[in-house]
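Here is one chain, start to finish.
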Amino acid sequence: MNITYSTSEARTRFDEIIRHVGDGKTITISYRGEPVAEVRPPEGPETIEQRTQELERRGVLIGPRGPRTPFEGGAYVPGALDAFFEERD
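Its structure:
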C-alpha cells in the first residue's frame, strides 16, 4: 500500500510520516497531484561493524593504529587517550 501526502499535508503531519517510515513504509510526497519526492527508511550497512567500515572507507572515521583488542571485564585497554598524550609529548 502506497501512502501519499500532499506537500501541505506533509508539513502538518511530519511526525506521522516519520512514524510510517520508522515502520519500514515508503511515503510519497506530491505537489499538485504529481509525485515529487519519497521518504523511505535509510539503506545501508546493517551492523555496527559494517557501518564503521563504511565510515572508515569514506574517511569520516580513522581506524585504530594497531590490532583491535576487546575490553575484558575491567581490564585496562590502551586507547585514544593514551594516543593523545603520546602525541602531545
